[in-house]
Design brief:
By secondary structure, the protein is an alpha+beta fold. The chain has 3 domains: 107 residues, RNA polymerase II/Efflux pump adaptor protein, barrel-sandwich hybrid domain (OB fold (Dihydrolipoamide Acetyltransferase, E2P)), CATH 2.40.50; 67 residues, E3-binding domain (Dihydrolipoamide Transferase); 198 residues, Chloramphenicol Acetyltransferase, CATH 3.30.559. 29% of the residues lie in helices and 23% in strands. The protein contains 10 helices and 21 strands. It is elongated, with a radius of gyration of 27 Å. The relative contact order is 0.11.
Amino acid sequence: MPKGKAMIIELPQVGESVTEGTIVQWFKQVGDSVERYDPLVEVLTDKVSMEVPSPVSGVVTEILAEEGQTLPMGAPIASIRTADAVEPAPPAESPPQASKQLQAADRIGVLLKDVAPVGPTGSGNVVGFSSQNEPTSDTSPESRRRRRYSPAVQRLANEHGIDLEQVDGTGINGRVTRKDVLVYIESRADAAVAISAPAPPVAAQSDVLDDLDEERLPLSPVRRMIAANMKRSASEIPTAWSITEVDVSGLVRRREALKDEFMQREGVNLTYLHFVVKAVAESLRENPLLNSSWGENVIILKKRINIGIAVAAPDGLVVPVLQDADTLSVAGIAARAADLTTRARQGKLGVEDVQGGTFTLNNTGALGSIASQPIINHPQAAILTTEAILKRPVVIGDAIGIRSMMNICLTFDHRIMDGAEASEFANGVKQRLEAISDDTGIY
């Protein structure tokens, strides 16, 4: 190991709205040499996935955050012994012993490109942190010699009443893997039969049967992050919702007349959603309560209208943001949305592409839905879905005509507004969409 100073590597700060990140994959292990700017670790936030490069050259001396663990931004995640003469101030929240020996490295990160997020590999718990990711006070030499277990392994052991100290590990550095625990369960069952031991309790038998009758899918970091955000929204925001029926016959005709020429001229597909974004942006300008957030003792009105568009990417739902959507034409919205959607599905979004959203729009109609109750993207005040467009008989005056009809479904924060304000906004969107005709411009 080269002589030099031991540096703490921190989880990089990537923006005010990003408060924590999940360790997805370590590219270097203890004892590995690393050059400055070499990829060190992959980190997933609720906004984007990124690679964190090493800010210094040296040798990795300690991994302080396990794969699959979620930590606050700025938390120490590793240490590197280096000869580089970089001596920044030590971090305020570094572990007690480490703070006496290690100095903080620069917070530095680059966006992960062309790499889809991957799930936890099940490496062991971090010394100095409990299984609940809370710092522990036990940093004695004895605690550092304890065997480390991943959350998945610990849960399986708890379910079957297994002392993990009795399980032989076959993973890296003798780490106990989930497969090791399953093998131990099978061997224990075989031994019980061989010595004609009494039948295990009913609960234990049920656990074994569950393994045979069920398949348990591990949560990917993306799915875990989505689950946490949805739980937070559902538990913190008292919501109400409504459905508004919209006659989009004029929109359908106008889009049909323009789409081929627009594709040839702009190189992107002109969709119904682009017209909806324009109508929503203009309606938000007239109804600022929908473009706000809850601040406990105040309502925070957002001066910019940044509309997030929910995109079903291969690894989970992402919401790239159309910044200042109210300043864009339909054509401008189409071009920018096409770029964001393409990069979202390729895993190439940057942090700046997903920050600052003030309202979210989701085209659930693309999935065949005709009505839905969306969950608000915390901490926003509302979310709107556009449903499938269906031709239906509609009463027009004293006659019946076949019209293209679409539902828009609005969920709103009932702390911030009541039904009157929410309905005024929804009706504003409705009126703008129903006003689209053969003469409506898109530039």
